[in-house]
Inverse folding.
C-alpha cells in the first residue's frame, strides 16, 4: 500500500524551475531514498511535503487523501539545516517542539522520559542547548522529530555530525521505527547508507526525477553483466567468446576474479568453465555500488542536457 | 490558535526569566523616580554649613546692618580694619570670607567684592546681592528727600505669581502647569520611542536568532510562518506590557512614598513654628490652623507643586491613548522589524534595511520634542496623524489637550497601516526565513512580496 505520493508536482522560483512534474510514490512501512546532487530540488520537494511551501501545480497525497493542514501532525521532519534554540534548556525545548506538533504537555512529558532514557540522555534535560556538543544536539533533535509518532518521517542527512557509534544507534532506531510501522523518506549523499537502509529510491536532478524504483532492481539493472568469482589458490582463468575476464587478484590464498559477459548470461556455462580451473568459493553478480550508479546517471543526464 | 498560544508562551517565558529582563525591570523605575526625587532632595538639602562673613566698608558705614543674618550665614561688621590686611588673615580669624564694600558702590554697583577660599554658594550670593541692591535703592531714594518714604514703599510692594488656568467650553476650570505638561510630553514621547524601538528590535533579534540557529525550519514544518511571526510579536508585546506595568506601579509607588515623606517633613517644620508661636502668645489655636500649615507647606515647595500638577493631568484619557499607541506603534514597527530580521542572515546585515525604519522613528522623536515648545503647530498636527510617527508625536501632544477628532482620525489611520504592515511583513517573512546564505536586496524582497502561497 502506498502511504505517500506526489503526482506531477511542479514548483518554480522566479526564473528557476525547482521541480518539474516530479512524481514519487512511497510504500507504507518502507524506507524511501530521495537522492540527487546539490541543488537538484530535494529540499524543495521535502518542503512541499511539510507544507512549508506549496506546489505551483500537481498534487500531494498522504494515506490516499490530498495533503491537508492537519497532516503536519502525521509528519516528522529532521531538516538538513537544523538547529535548536541555543539559550533554551533541552527539556523545555523538547516540550515546546512536541507541543507545536500537537501533543499535550503531559503526553509529551511521558514520551520524552521514555526516549531520553532509551538514548541515555536523561542528564541533559536541564542543560542549555549551547552546552551540548553538535552530536548531542543531533540526538535531542532526533528525539523531537519522532516524538509525536508520525506516520511519515523525513530525515535529511540524519547521520552527519554523529560519531560511528551514535550513527549506528540512530540507524537502528530508524530501522526500529520502520518495523513499528513508520514510513521513512531518507535524503542523503551518503550512498553506502542508502544501500544499507533504503527499499526504494528516486533520484532527482535539475528538478526532474531521472531514476526510480526498488534499490534491488536498480542495482541489478545497472549491474552491466559483471560477476565476481572467488576461487581457492592462485588461478589464472581465461574467458571464451561469451565472457571475458576483466582482472584477477590473488590475495591470502584466494583469487578474486571479475568477469564480464556479452549479455547472454549463461551462468551455468561460466560456472562449468571456471570449475575447471580450481575450487569455486563463491560466485556472485557484481552489483554496482549506489555511488557508481549515482555518478553514472547524473553524468549521463548532464551530457544529455549539454 | 492553540499553537499560537504555545508560541506566545515560549516567547514570553524565555524572555521574562532572563536576568537582564529582571534587572532592567526593577532598576528603571528607580532611575525614573530619581528624576523626580533628586531635584527635590537637592532643594531641601542645601549647604547647611554655617558661615561667618566679615563685612568691611571703605571709610563709610552706610551699609552697617543692611545685610540681615540668615540661617546659613552671619555678617559681622568690622570697623577700623583695612580690607587689604584682612584679606590675608580672615581665615585664621575664623571667617568664611570678607565682603568688601567700596564707597563708590552707589555709583558703580560692581564695587563690591567677596573674598573667600571656597566658591560661595549661589544662595548666599543672591542674599548679599539682594540685600545690597535694596540698600542701594533705598539710599538713592533717600537722596530724593521724599516724605514718608517707608510707608510709600510698604504700600506699593506687590508680589505677582501668575497662575495658568485652562477653561473648557462648559466653563470648567483647571489649574495647569505648562512646565508639568512639557515634562509629561517629553517623558511620554521618549518612553514611546524607547519602548517601540527596544521591543521592535527584540522581535528582529528573535527572528534572526531562529534563522541563524536554523530552528525555524523545524518550527515551520509544524506551524505556519505567519503563526510563528504573530506568536513572537504578541509574546514580546506581553513582555513589554509586563515591564511597562511594573515600571508604572513601582515609579508611582516610589514617587508617592517620597512625596509623603517630603510633605510630612515640611509640615513638621511648619507645625513646630506654629507651636512655637502658640507658646509665645500663650493663645489657644484652632485645630485647622495646623492643617492649614501642612497645606501651605505643600504649596510652598516648588517640586511638590510640580508633582501635584503632574498628577493633576487627564490621566483617564492619556493612559488609554498611550496604551493604544504603544500597542499599535509596536505592532507596526515589530512587523517591519520581523520582516527585516527574516531577510538577513545576521544582525550585521540589517543596516541597509534598518534605515527606512529608523528614520521615521527618529523624525517622530524630533517632532515630539518640538511639540513641547509648540503643541499646536501644524508640523505637530501632521506628524501626529501620519502613522509612522503618530505613536510618538501624538502621545507627546496629549498633555496639551488634543481635539478628539484628531485622536480618532490618527487612530483610524494607525489601525489601517498596522494591518497593511502585518500583511506585508508576513509575505516577506514567509519567504525570508527559509533563505540562507544569499545577500538579500530590495529587489529580492519585492519579488517575495509577489510570490503566491
Amino acid at each position: 500500500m502506498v502511504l505517500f505520493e506526489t503526482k506531477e508536482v511542479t514548483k518554480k522560483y522566479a526564473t528557476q524551475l525547482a521541480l518539474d512534474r516530479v512524481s514519487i510514490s512511497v510504500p507504507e512501512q518502507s524506507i524511501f531514498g530521495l537522492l540527487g546532487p546539490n541543488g537538484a530540488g530535494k529540499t524543495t520537494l521535502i518542503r512541499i511535503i511539510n507544507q512549508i511551501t506549496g506546489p505551483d501545480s500537481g498534487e500531494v497525497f498522504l494515506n490516499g487523501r490530498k495533503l491537508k493542514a492537519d497532516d503536519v501532525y502525521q509528519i516528522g521532519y529532521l531538516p538538513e539545516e537544523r538547529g535548536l534554540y541555543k539559550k533554551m534548556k533541552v527539556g523545555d525545548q523538547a516540550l515546546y517542539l512536541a507541543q507545536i506538533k500537537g501533543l499535550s504537555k503531559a503526553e509529551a512529558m511521558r514520551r520524552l522520559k521514555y526516549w531520553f532514557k532509551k538514548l541515555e540522555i536523561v542528564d541533559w534535560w536541564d542543560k542549555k542547548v549551547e552546552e551540548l556538543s553538535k552530536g548531542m544536539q543531533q540526538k535531542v533533535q532526533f528525539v523531537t522529530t519522532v516524538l509525536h509518532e508520525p506516520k511519515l518521517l523525513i530525515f535529511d542527512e540524519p547521520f552527519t555530525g554523529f560519531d560511528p557509534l551514535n550513527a549506528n544507534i540512530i540507524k537502528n532506531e530508524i530501522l526500529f521505527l520502520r518495523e513499528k510501522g513508520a514510513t521513512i523518506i531518507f535524503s542523503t549523499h551518503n550512498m553506502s547508507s542508502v544501500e544499507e537502509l533504503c527499499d526504494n529510491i528516486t533520484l532527482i536532478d535539475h528538478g526532474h526525477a531521472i531514476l526510480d524504483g526498488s534499490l534491488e532492481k536498480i542495482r541489478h539493472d545497472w549491474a552491466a553483466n559483471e560477476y565476481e568469482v572467488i576461487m581457492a589458490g592462485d588461478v589464472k582463468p581465461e574467458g571464451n567468446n561469451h565472457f571475458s575476464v576483466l582482472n584477477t587478484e590473488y590475495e591470502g590464498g584466494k583469487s578474486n576474479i571479475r568477469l564480464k559477459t556479452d549479455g547472454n548470461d549463461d551462468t551455468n556455462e561460466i560456472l562449468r568453465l571456471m570449475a575447471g580451473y580450481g575450487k569455486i568459493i563463491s560466485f556472485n553478480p557484481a552489483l554496482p555500488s549506489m555511488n557508481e550508479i549515482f555518478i553514472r546517471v547524473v553524468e549521463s543526464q548532464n551530457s544529455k542536457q549539454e | 490558535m492553540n499553537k499560537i498560544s504555545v508560541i506566545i508562551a515560549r516567547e514570553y517565558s524565555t524572555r521574562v526569566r532572563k536576568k537582564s529582563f529582571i534587572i532592567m525591570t526593577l532598576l528603571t523605575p528607580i532611575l525614573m523616580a530619581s528624576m523626580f526625587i533628586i531635584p527635590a532632595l537637592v532643594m531641601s538639602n542645601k549647604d547647611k554649613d554655617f558661615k561667618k562673613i566679615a563685612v568691611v566698608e571703605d571709610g563709610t558705614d552706610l551699609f552697617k546692618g543692611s545685610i540681615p543674618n540668615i540661617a546659613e550665614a552671619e555678617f559681622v561688621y568690622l570697623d577700623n580694619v583695612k580690607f587689604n590686611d584682612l584679606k590675608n588673615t580672615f581665615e585664621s580669624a575664623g571667617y568664611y570670607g570678607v565682603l568688601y564694600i567700596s564707597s563708590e558702590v552707589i555709583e558703580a554697583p560692581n564695587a563690591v567684592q567677596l573674598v573667600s577660599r571656597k566658591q560661595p554658594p549661589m544662595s548666599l550670593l543672591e542674599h548679599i546681592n539682594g540685600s545690597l541692591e535694596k540698600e542701594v535703592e533705598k539710599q538713592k531714594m533717600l537722596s530724593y528727600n521724599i516724605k514718608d518714604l517707608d510707608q510709600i514703599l510698604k504700600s506699593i510692594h506687590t508680589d505677582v505669581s501668575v497662575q495658568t488656568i485652562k477653561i473648557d467650553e462648559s466653563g470648567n476650570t483647571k489649574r495647569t502647569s505648562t512646565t508639568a505638561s512639557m515634562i509629561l510630553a517629553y517623558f511620554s514621547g521618549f518612553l514611546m520611542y524607547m519602548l517601540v524601538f527596544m521591543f521592535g528590535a527584540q522581535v528582529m533579534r528573535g527572528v534572526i536568532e531562529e534563522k541563524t540557529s536554523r530552528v525555524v525550519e523545524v518550527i515551520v514544518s509544524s506551524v505556519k510562518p505567519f503563526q510563528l511571526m504573530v506568536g513572537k510579536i504578541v509574546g514580546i508585546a506581553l513582555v513589554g506590557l509586563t515591564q511597562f506595568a511594573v515600571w508604572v506601579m513601582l515609579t508611582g509607588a516610589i514617587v508617592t512614598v517620597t512625596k509623603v515623606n517630603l510633605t510630612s517633613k515640611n509640615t513638621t517644620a511648619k507645625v513646630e513654628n506654629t507651636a512655637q508661636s502658640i507658646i509665645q502668645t500663650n493663645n489657644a489655636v484652632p485645630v485647622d490652623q495646623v492643617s492649614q500649615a501642612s497645606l501651605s507647606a505643600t504649596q510652598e515647595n516648588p517640586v511638590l507643586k510640580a508633582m501635584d500638577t503632574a498628577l493633576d493631568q487627564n490621566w483617564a484619557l492619556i493612559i488609554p491613548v498611550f496604551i493604544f499607541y504603544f500597542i499599535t506603534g509596536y505592532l507596526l514597527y515589530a512587523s517591519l522589524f520581523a520582516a527585516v530580521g527574516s531577510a538577513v542572515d545576521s544582525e550585521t546585515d540589517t543596516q541597509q534595511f534598518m534605515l527606512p525604519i529608523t528614520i521615521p522613528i527618529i523624525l517622530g522623536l524630533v517632532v515630539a520634542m518640538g511639540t513641547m515648545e509648540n503643541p499646536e503647530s501644524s508640523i505637530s498636527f501632521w506628524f501626529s496623524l501620519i502613522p509612522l510617527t503618530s505613536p510618538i508625536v501624538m502621545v507627546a501632544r496629549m498633555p496639551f489637550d488634543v481635539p478628539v477628532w484628531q485622536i480618532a482620525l490618527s487612530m483610524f489611520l494607525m489601525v489601517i497601516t498596522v494591518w497593511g504592515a502585518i500583511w506585508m511583513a508576513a509575505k516577506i517573512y514567509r519567504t525570508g526565513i527559509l533563505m540562507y546564505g544569499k545577500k538579500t536586496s530590495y529587489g529580492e524582497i519585492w519579488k517575495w512580496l509577489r510570490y503566491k502561497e
User: Anything to note?
Assistant: The interface with chain A takes residues 3, 6-7, 10, 14, 209-210, 213-215, 217-223, 225, 434, 436, 447, 452-453 of chain B (CB under 8 Å). The longest helix of chain B spans residues 225-281. Chain B has a mean pLDDT of 79. The radius of gyration of chain B is 32 Å.
